[in-house]
Each structure stands twice: as structure tokens, then as C-alpha cells.
Specification:
This protein is an alpha+beta fold. The protein is 23% helix and 35% strand.
């Protein structure tokens, strides 16, 4: 599977997927580029220049990368703090965290999605794909030290008729909700470790 490394002026994040079927091997991305900056390794099909939809967001939080990571990988908790997610289900039950190869189902932007974690480098990188009706996408996250805190970077590239239509009708919607996601992630990470799923459900 061909890939391209893309280096950005201040940051980067990966989003990738093998078209038409499961990824045959996990992605391996270098943590730093030639000039000491984070690098994305884009599969050719998902390079931003080859996709009709590409969204990029970033923010900085005072929390450490390990704290941010802990909140993001506890995916069943997303609906309690990210309003654009619903019904997150992991195959190992509600107590599971995301890991390399985890397949999970969820709803976002009103679409039922099936995702697989295809890159997993704690606490720096995680990438999953996203397949639903009219959507063929990848979404990646990069956590980079920023002083005593963390720079949260995320990008998504998409193919599919629904992805294109939604972008034309609501050109800023995905960027808006991804910004909500990363900013709330940063806030949660400063509050301490995430609760267990059982504890959160009991509240």
C-alpha cells in the first residue's frame, strides 16, 4: 500500500485506510520528520490532495499527553462529554479501551459507523478508519508535548457521496464539532483520570 509523508509547518496528524477492505497491517509512522516535526504517512488514496474532504483541528491543553490519551481511548465514555457521539460499542464490552485492531461501532453526524483502530502508539498517536452509508474515512490523532501540557492535533480525510454532500451543505460542521471534541478532551484531561465505564454509568 503506497503512502506519502506530509510535513506541516507546526504539526501533523494521520488519517488513513485501505480502500475497500480491512487494513492488512498496522500503520507505522515516524514520530518526527527531518526537521524535528511530526509527520503523517498518508496512504495514497487518503492523501489530502486525493480526497474531497479534509479537516484539520488543533488546540493546546495544560494536561500531560498520558492524561489526554487516557480520556480519548476510553471510547465508551465519549457520549458523556462529546455531544456528537452516540452508542459507542466495543467488542470486549463496555469496560474496554481502544487498542490496536479494536473494532468498534458508534454514531456520529447522524451516521452509523464501524471503525477499526489501525495505528496505536501510546500516548502519541492513534488512528481509526470509519465506514458508514456513503462515508469512507480515516481519523487520526497526534499528541505532542507543548511546554508542561499537550498540543492536540487531529485530521480527517473522507471519500463517499454522503461525505461530499454534507460538506457542501454544511461546510464548517465537521470542523466545528472536531474543535468541540478536542477542546473538551483537553478540559477533561485536566480534571484527572477518566472514570471506569461502570462508575460513569452509575452517576
Amino acid at each position: 500500500m503506497a503512502s506519502h509523508a506530509t510535513e506541516y509547518p507546526t504539526h501533523a496528524t494521520a488519517d488513513c485506510r485501505n480502500p475497500g477492505g480491512p487494513l492488512t497491517r498496522p500503520l507505522r509512522c515516524a514520530r518526527r520528520g527531518a526537521r524535528g516535526r511530526p509527520v503523517i504517512h498518508w496512504p495514497e488514496r487518503y492523501h489530502p490532495k486525493r480526497t474531497p474532504v479534509h479537516v484539520r483541528n488543533e488546540t493546546v491543553t495544560a494536561a500531560a499527553p498520558t492524561a489526554v490519551w487516557a480520556w480519548l481511548v476510553r471510547a465508551p465514555l465519549w457520549p458523556t462529554w462529546y455531544p456528537n457521539s452516540r452508542n459507542v460499542r466495543l467488542p470486549d464490552g463496555p469496560e474496554g479501551d481502544l487498542a490496536l485492531g479494536t473494532v468498534f461501532t458508534w454514531r456520529t453526524f447522524g451516521v452509523a459507523i464501524r471503525s477499526t483502530v489501525i495505528e496505536f502508539e501510546p500516548p502519541w498517536r492513534i488512528t481509526w478508519d470509519a465506514f458508514g452509508l456513503g462515508v469512507d474515512a480515516c481519523h487520526a490523532w497526534l499528541f505532542e508535548p507543548a511546554g508542561a501540557g499537550t498540543r492536540i492535533l487531529t485530521e480527517e480525510t473522507q471519500h463517499g457521496w454522503a461525505a461530499v454532500l454534507n460538506t457542501r451543505l454544511f461546510p464548517r460542521r465537521m470542523h466545528h464539532f472536531h474543535q468541540v471534541w478536542i477542546e473538551e478532551l483537553g478540559r477533561r484531561a485536566t480534571s484527572g483520570p477518566p472514570p471506569s465505564i461502570t462508575t460513569a454509568a452509575a452517576r
